[in-house]
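Limitations

Structures in this collection are predictions, not experimental determinations, and the ligand pose is part of the prediction. Treat each record accordingly. The example that follows, with zinc ion as the small molecule, is included so readers can see exactly what is and is not provided: the inputs are given verbatim, and the output is the predicted complex.
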Amino acid sequence: MPLMLEKLNRADKARFIERLAGIYEHSPWVVERAYDARPFVTLAALKHALVEAVRNATADEQLALIRAHPQLAGRAMQAATLTRESTDEQSRAGLTQCTPDELARIARLNADYEARFGFPFILAVRGPRALGLSKAEIFATFERRLDHPAEFERAEALRNIHRIAEIRLDEKLGFSPELGNRVWDWAEHLAHYSDDGHAERGELTVTYLTDAHRAAAGRLASWMRDDCGFDDVSIDAVGNVVGIYHGADPDARRLLTGSHYDTVRNGGRYDGRLGILVPMAVVRELARAGRRLPFGIEVVGFAEEEGQRYRATFLGSSALTGRFDPRWLDQADANGITMRDAMADAKLPVDDIARLRRDPARYLAFVEVHIEQGPVLTEADIPLGIVTSINGSLRHAGEIVGMASHAGTTPMNARRDAAAAAAEALLFVERRASSVPGVVGTIGMLDVPNGSINVVPGRCRFSLDIRAPEDRVRDACAVDVLDEMQRICARRGVRLAIQETMRASAAPCDDAWRVRWERAVAALGVPVHRLPSGAGHDAMKLHEVMPQAMLFVRGQNGGISHNPLESITNDDADLAVRAFASLADALAAERR
Ligand SMILES: [Zn+2]
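Predicted complex:
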């Protein structure tokens, strides 16, 4: 592969264009414009140059590029205008073997889509590995995307075009993202374990200490032991899967890494798991090469982070920082099973939890790889991002009490409508949070208890969630929001009761470790893109006792997460493994 890249770097313009013909459907101008960005240090750098060529093109040129693509399984399938590449890809997705009913459905979707957006529906039908997407997934995606706003869908079409180009380019240059494929295969396999047994429908729910959860832990442990060559693999007293790969000196300090393997209800396959699988792939390569570094690597699959079965969250990482609260053991789940009983059933030695506390002096730092769970990287067309800070968050539970009265007889000026007051407060939250970059504010729960169609709401309960990269900025927003809520309620003659229910400090990533991630990403030829983390992560807990820094991996489907549509590509997973390996190599050089 590097040889092919070298040839491309040395080629004259005509040869360069000829060599990469067909990567972008009937649009050689994309390749032509990327030519000026030579030399490309890596394949990732070449891909980025192609992406930039399209980003910098005019809107008309972008539209022409989209329109140069055939309709999915459309009439164009028979026409001579379809490139060989497109025919191959569509036939591999099973789209050339549709039943008459399926063809009719596709024709209808194609027509609706063209009418709505003015360009053909484009989907990179070949996913990671040759298998690609199933017909069912293609139909589901088609229907979902018909609901997108026009601008968003146009960007989504371009993103799919880049993914198609990436797959074609890999093939042309004889590159296969083997490290990413391994991570992707592991994640697929783990997704077979789901609490409600609906894994075959693509639904994934793995909550603390259920059968599926314990099976996933066992699977991770066996991969670590048998496939990856870790020296020491165990499942600890809270269910964390811990794999240790010693340094050249077994007593050397360790780099601590990992993430969680539990999921939210009906969640995705990569949230948490990616951060376990990526360093596993790195250790596997080290062990296969018989390499030992001047430091050990300890990978932890945290048993619990999402707080789905019990109210407590971050059970796994709290045990490592010595902040596992024994009172949590008496919490009961929805079926009345206490955490203590669930742990006894799983044969976890509850009395040993206190001993799981790690001595920070034995560790270099905690680093965590995680899927972004947001749209920032995918909208920037950049596969990896460096986290600057994990946002501090603040949650409140509120209730507004007005007066329930007859919806027909109470004049508008005589109402004390609790829901209207909450609605006004919600719009203020939106306005106030939007006014400061990085701040997000959400009223995600709104409830009119015993509401009725003909009753002015007398009560309205709501939640409030505010986050920012710095505690000070978050708190200033909260003060303004609470003040304004009081004013709104006073003016409307309703009463507000609001309580803080959760407060988590922002966890800025350690500067030196953040820079190590940046260098690792830059070495891959990927532009360095920094962003805060809006979601909480295990790194936030480890932050309390040691330096931490995170790497984000771009999510597909607009970055959607906590949803079965959450997805990554094998090429992006491959880059994540390489970035981690590069960070480990650089660290080894520093410590030699
Ligand atoms: Zn997560």
